[in-house]
Amino acid sequence: MDVTVGVIGLGNVGLGALQILSENAKSIREKLGFPLRVKSICSRNVHAKNLPLGGEPPVRTTNWKDVVCDPEIDIIVEAVGGTATASHIIEESLRERKSVVTANKELMALRGADLWTIANQNGVNLAMEASVAGGIPIHTVLREGIAGDRVVELYGILNGTSNFILTEIEKSAANFQSVLAEAQQLGYAEADPSADIDGLDAGSKLAILAALAFGEKLTPADIYTEGIRRIMPVDFEYAHQLKHTIRLLCLARQTEQGLLLSVRPSLIPQAAILAQVKGAYNAIWIRGVYGEDTFYYGRGAGPKPTGVAVVSDLMRVAREIRFGSPERVSPFAHERLGEYKPLPLPTQKLPYYLRFRVEDKAGIIAMLATILAKHRIGIDAVLQLPREDWRDLPFVITTEPAGEQAIRDALVEIRDADFLVEAPFAMPMERGF
Fold first, then answer.
1. Least-confidence region, from 82-91, 184-193, 225-234, 264-273
2. What pLDDT was estimated at residue 151?
């Protein structure tokens, strides 16, 4: 007896999952001992699509309720995306006692814990492996693979678009806008790239991973987030002088005072394994109390890597339906999530990279040093590469470990100086690797 599937949404994720279900049907059946059959598919233009289907053709519909309310369908794949219609689809599916597989990071970051409660109440499952780092089974790692450990730190490169842009700037010394245009031409970036380059996409993913790792109910609003728009080729030149590089780093760190969370461009040592993650790849480095360091690397997006995660979830849920599983593992790895709020980021202390673009005049360094000293920030080094344009001269000050609030206060005092071409730019220098 087969297990039946309804797929709602035929964008990259939905089409990728359908292709794998069709082309890999024999292998899937051999692993499960029974087939997965796509009974129904839904999208607004479903009748116009040439779909990668084999075997018995599924029912096509433009109304998602036809799929959700079909009593013969066991599992719903939600591949619509967004937080409006997708939320209704998932909630109604769960109340119809159908398990749900989703790749929807934005919705899972906002409502995942609540939707899991509804799934539990109705005796069905909610699977979301594809919602973070599509090609890396990081949910399974945190939920089951290293469940016996206690995670204390998690570092991630979780947005392939931003990582492609940063590593291309580093490689070619091209400016941000030209590399962004290239990323859009290659299909790595959307026409509106804000979610990627402003860190919002990575923030949703970190909220999910941090909930899994630390057992707390978190949303993207709990995470301090900065994007990469201000990164310049000269920042890589200075970073290399410091034996560092720059990545959009997702951080979750458990301290004695509480949990710190951030998504922002950061300097990391060139010797760190995360510094070797280039192009549109994702990676996660997890540090546990007992198992210590583990590292996970792979494609973070794309129809096929994400499709593999969706189909793998389908297989896991299908086994539960066929054979039963009275003690199902929560998709958030903890039976209940706490309501603890993370620490404000300004409480942490790190060395910082401060980049200034100035119209060159006498006394600039002395003035900056005076203001930094006023805020109890020690200077570690001053770096200035040769430049011909004295009206736009970039240079860098690196600091000794300092409180983030002190850095912010000092930069507020500095930013109105008449010699500045633009506001100062700060990045932390992570030393936890």
1. 184-193
2. 94
- Note if 205 is an active site residue: yes
The three state secondary structure string of the chain is CCEEEEEECCCHHHHHHHHHHHHCHHHHHHHHCCCEEEEEEECCCHHHCCCCCCCCCCEEECCHHHHHCCCCCCEEEECCCCCCHHHHHHHHHHHCCCEEEECCHHHHHHHHHHHHHHHHHCCCCEECHHHCCCCCCHHHHHHHHCCCCCEEEEEEECCHHHHHHHHHHHHHCCCHHHHHHHHHHCCCCCCCCHHHHCCHHHHHHHHHHHHHHHCECCCHHHCEECCCCCCCHHHHHHHHHCCEEEEEEEEEEECCCCEEEEEEEEEEECCCHHHHCCCCEEEEEEEECCCEEEEEEEECCCHHHHHHHHHHHHHHHHHHHHHCCCCCCCCCCCCCCECCCCCCHHHCEECEEEEEEECCCCCHHHHHHHHHHHCCCCEEEEECCCCCCCCCEEEEEEECCEEHHHHHHHHHHHCCCCCECCCCEEEEECCCC
At residue 304, the pLDDT reads: 86
Map out the domains of the chain with their CATH numbers.
3-132+303-323 (3.40.50.720), 138-299 (3.30.360.10), 346-428 (3.30.70.260)
Contacts 24+ apart (CB under 8 A), 373-380: 374/410, 374/413, 375/402, 375/406, 375/407, 375/409, 375/410, 375/413, 376/402, 376/406, 377/402, 377/406, 377/407, 377/410, 378/402, 380/351
Q: Which residue has the higher pLDDT, 329 or 73?
A: 73
The pLDDT of residue 325 is above 70? no
Q: CA–CA separation, 216 vs 297, rounded Å?
A: 25
Residue type for position 49: K
Mean pLDDT of 394-414: 95
Q: Rounded CA gap, 126 and 128, in Å?
A: 7
Rounded Cα distance between 245 and 236, Å, is 6
pLDDT at 327: 56
Average pLDDT over every residue of 391-397 = 92
Give the model's pLDDT for residue 67.
96
Active-site choice (39, 98, 105, 205): 205
Q: Which two tokens stand for residue 152?
A: 């204390």
Tokens representing 252?
A: 């979750």
